[in-house]
Amino acid sequence: xxxxxxxxxxxxxxxxxxxxxxxxPELKSDEEVRKKARSLMTEYxxxxxxxELKECVVEEVGSANGVKFIEFSVREALNAKISVRDxxxxxxxxxxxxxxxxxxxxxxxxxxxxxxxDNITVDDPRAAEFVARYLAALYTTGKLGADGKTGLxxxxxxxxHAMGKIPVKFMLALLSEITKMLKEEGEEEESIKKKVLEVFxxxxxxxxVSILTFNSMRGISILEDMLKEYSxxxxxxxxxxxxxxxxxxLQDATGxxxxxxxxxxxxxxxxxxxxxxxxxxTCALAIYLYDGSEKISEKMTAGAGAxxxxxxxxxSPPSDTQMSVxxxxxxxxxxxxxxxxxxxxxxxxxxxxxxxxxxxxxxLYESEVVEEDTFMKWKADDSEKVMKVGGKPExxxxxxxxxxWLATAETA
Length: 412
What we know:
Helix content is about 65%, strand content about 0%. By secondary structure, the chain is mainly α. The chain has two domains: about 30-205, Serine Threonine Protein Phosphatase 5, Tetratricopeptide repeat (Alpha Horseshoe), CATH 1.25.40.180; about 205-230 and about 240-410, Serine Threonine Protein Phosphatase 5, Tetratricopeptide repeat (Alpha Horseshoe), CATH 1.25.40. Mean pLDDT is about 85; it is low at about 5-15 and about 15-20.
């Protein structure tokens, strides 16, 4: 009989019980998530207890509710008094630094907010300023590498539905906030400028043209003042030539006069690149369409169109440049299409029941800036590049009658 306590009689030690697996919080209703966002933000702003916030988010919110939670958190921050809204900066940075939600959830939430900025700022003019501050804070965390996203890609994605339509002041506020935060982290000035320029280019916004749609007579001066206000003059190195170009368009200068004036200001200006053609044409059309000009096709032919023909040895610009022009015009026409009170066209066009899109495309066609083949390629193009610009379906609707005219003209 085995002795007591021998190997044969000892029972195997019982393994400690494994802790119960943490259960991911279930999908909650909008109202439940809104209340949770409000309570957690309020508690954090009072205590700044990072550990408590992290535990509550993991146990009570979960990744399944991430998009709604972040969106409602931003809305709660914007509903707070101006004096405490800056507390949203460490709050949102914590969510990113601790990787409490997938990057895509953050992108989706901020995309929704940015898309509604126009409406939000009607009741709260300073909302855009704080949204820009929150976005800048997330960009500068350096922790957006999950899901293959960098800080730049995050901004590009979060602002994707607004690209080409982002208000100039919002973009400048965003870039200014990024500059300030990077300076606070001790980054060198040249490195800061490089990063800010990258974000600016990713924003796909032509500041000169965008400001013209606000006020063509004083717009360029307003832009110049805003750049100085935010210490971002280096973003628009072409300011002198832009100002002269706009002045010439407003005075109905001929193409030759415009060419001579631009050369006198900058003899190294690359006038054959696609960006130059897009700038010239969009500046001209923004002025004509927003100022209610008459005889737009004639003005385009004598001015911007003639300038581009001189640059391209008497020919229309190359087809890829023509496509760049159409893509640059697309967001301007889209903005007009969704404006409930668009600037009125001249009576001559109104009497013919023409749309802004019809008038713009007709001017490009008659001035031979864009040829028929390029128009048709643009119409049929549903590639990501074209669709990312935004507003393609709306612009197609605005120009449908012009394309009908074009098909009729071909058979006449």
